Amino acid sequence: MIIDRIETLDRRRKKIFADGEFAFALYLGEIRQLGLEEGGELAEELYQKILREIIFKRARERAVYWLKCSARTEEELRRKLRDNSYPPAAVDYVIDLLKQYRYIDDEEYARNFIEVHASGKSRAELAALLSRKGISRECVSRLMEENPVDEEAQIRRILEKRRFHPEEADQKETARQTAYLMRKGFSYDTVRRVLSETFVR
Question: How far apart, in whole angstroms, are the C-alpha atoms of residue 81 and residue 174?
Fold first, then answer.
């Protein structure tokens, strides 16, 4: 492989591109020590050694550190590794390793997320949040079937927190609360059922 270009990543690191593709990011001292320069050759053996002994190890350590700070889904971790300039080979290696040792488990993450947030969010809102985290809608639907979300009870809690009492509210305020709940993912029919009840202070 030929090193096409070397780009500055930050004050301490640079990105190495070889044969038209991003290879990896290294610290300035590592680049000097390895003798890497634009237009120079990057032998396959050296390339694999850099991945194995530097990049894979560094990516693994960073991923474990992030997981210690907060649980993450596979997609969130992939995204974070990519954003921190780790090449695809390193990302795949780390994800496979962490899944093998169950450091990441999307289904368990989704189950815990639903349990923690179910009291204040609709099924649709939970599904949307988990989808952004890379959890499939099929997985979310199955978990919600196993642990049904009582949306009517959720709406009551939300309205009580907002100090809204249907029997005391005018049409304009009722419409405002209905719109708010629908924006949070509750269906119109479910909202109307709850709003038709008489709330007792």
Answer: 46
Helix (H) or strand (E) holding 195: helix 188-195
What is the predicted pLDDT for the residue at 24?
A: 97
Q: pTM to 2 decimals?
A: 0.73
Query: Quick one: pLDDT at residue 200?
Result: 46
Q: Which CATH number fits domain 56-104: 3.90.1200, 3.30.450, 1.20.1060, 1.10.10?
A: 1.10.10
Could you tell me the residue ranges of all domains in the chain? 1-42, 56-104, 106-146, 151-198
**Beta strands 3-8; 13-18: pairing state:** antiparallel
The DSSP-derived string for 135-189 is --HHHHHHHHHHS---HHHHHHHHHHHTT--GGG--HHHHHHHHHHHHHTT--HH
**pLDDT score at 187:** 84
Flag residues of the chain having pLDDT under 50: 199-201
Supply the pLDDT for residue 117: 82
**What's the burial of 194, exposed, middle or buried (CB within 10 Å: 0-12/13-18/19+)?**
buried
